[in-house]
Each structure stands twice: as C-alpha cells, then as structure tokens.
C-alpha cells in the first residue's frame, strides 16, 4: 500500500509537515548542472496508517524475541542434559556430536531471533521519514547539542518503546537471557583447582616404586652417585589419571655421602644420604633427567635450570624461580623406602598462592 492509495485524512501528521521541503526537487540546467535533485515523495507504510497492521507487527517482533528466550533456555538445557560423548546423524553433515549440534542450533536461533526482531521492528514500526540535514561545522555548538538531544527524544518517542510494552518486555527478556549462554561456556574452563596443586599422590606410608622395574626400592638398591626415578605405590600406567598424577608425583632419588649434604633440613629428611626430590622443574614443569655425580647438580634439559642436590636443591643457574621440593622419606618395616608424607610445598612452576 503506497501513500497514493491512502486517503489524505488518514496520513500521519507531524514530521511530514516539519520536513516538507525535503521532497522538493530542483531541475538541472546549464547554469546549475549539479542541482540537488532532492528526495522523492515519502511513501507511508501500512503500519503507519493501520493500527491493526501495527499490532500484527508488534506481535511478530515479540514472537521473535520470545523465540530467542526459548532458544537460550534450550542452549542451557542442552549443555546440562546432553552427554559430550553422544553422537547423532544429521543430513548432510553425517554423524556429529549431539551436544555441539544442539548448542550451535539453539545459540544460532537465539541470536538470529534477536536480530530479526530488531530489524522487523525498525522496518515496520519505527519512523522511516527521510530527513535531509545541511552540513555543519565539526565542532558542536550548544544549539547543535540541543538539536541532537531533541532528535534523540523524538526518535525515542517514535520508536514507541514506552507505548509498545509487549515489545519492550520481550526484548529486555531476550537480551537478558542471551548472555547466559556465554556464562555457561565458562564451565568448559574446568573445575576450580581448590588445593589440588598443593597435593600429590604421595602420602605417609606409600612405598617408593622404581619407574623402570615397577618394584619397591630398598636402600641397598641405591648406589652412591646413581640417579633413580620413582613413583608412588599403587599408581599404575593403565590408570585413567596416571599422566595427571605422575606429572606432580614424579620423583628422583640420589644417594649422597651424608657428610656432603650441606642443608640440615635435607639431611633430616633423607635416609642414610638418600634424598628424594621432585623431578618436575620449577620453571615451566619439564622433567629433570641430567645428573652430575661430581658436583651433585641436576640439570633441566629444557632451559638449563641447574639445582644443587647437596644444598637443598637450590637454584644455582637458569630461569627457575625456586628450589625443587623435597620428599621426606624413611624405611618401612619390610626394609623398603617409603614416604613420610606429601611434599611440603607445591610441585612444579610457581603460582601466586605458593606457600
């Protein structure tokens, strides 16, 4: 329906009269070949003259915003209810993750519905009167600011946000729920570590097991100047959490002459010169594997951090920030080396709560 088909008495008044000159057209001639052609006559939309059509558009926009809210709720429900291991067949993609498909579909619908609702609202209910404005200086004098404020108020009034409460409420509902999708995705960052970084698989009474032979270690098995790698009793390679646990519990055992141990705490926590230190470098967590018998130094192969095992495993070279944690050890009733507790401080690279 065009403005030519609408009786003149039904045409909306207001901005047409205010900007009636916008439709004026100039004719180019020899003296003014670049005359401003102006704007064509404004054609009113059906919603401008028919409140029933406007109500229909209002309900359409509200329906789209409501659809967005339902899709967002579906996104959250899918994230909670669908197992990550479940797969479905989707033509023509084939077999795909049911969770990923549900999340993508619901989030896509939620965002599309908000966009479609906003576009339909702007095209059918907001003012579409063409306005020609003269160029003005870049600076904004007081009268310009007043004009901008007046235009903003006029636009807010013409958007009918205050009068079309159904649109306003459903839009606010959709915009409020959609961000919850992003909040739910934060769950994929994983659970909070709590105190897991401070504890390993070592505990009082756990035997030291040789990583190569998978047998408990007796003091007599450790020769002076040798380097042995150990793991906690009960931690097997086929365990689901083996890699996670061994990354914190990996141990290196070295036997020194007791008179060569300079640090009193290290001597007290050792057994007959056998000391047990974390194998995990305190720089970026690389496994330490190089040992110098004469100097009692261990070297990280990644960035050459060097630790003195005869002096509390303190850092003597390289980027590591602190000494290797020591495990207090003793001998069980059966004559095997055992842990007398967990490491006294977190293993591996430093973190802000290190104590």
UniProtKB/TrEMBL annotation:
Q: What GO terms fall under cellular component here?
A: plasma membrane
Recorded hits in InterPro entries, A to Z, give: QcrA_N, Rieske_2Fe-2S, Rieske_2Fe-2S_sf, Rieske_Fe-S_prot
TM region(s), chain numbering: 61-82, 102-122, 166-186
Highest rank taxon of the organism: Bacteria
Could you state a single Gene Ontology molecular function term?
oxidoreductase activity, acting on paired donors, with incorporation or reduction of molecular oxygen
Q: Which Pfam families match?
A: QcrA_N, Rieske
Quaternary structure, from the entry = The cytochrome bc1 complex is composed of a cytochrome b (QcrB), the Rieske iron-sulfur protein (QcrA) and a diheme cytochrome c (QcrC) subunit.
User: Per the similarity annotation, which family is this?
Assistant: Belongs to the Rieske iron-sulfur protein family.
Q: What is this protein called?
A: Cytochrome bc1 complex Rieske iron-sulfur subunit
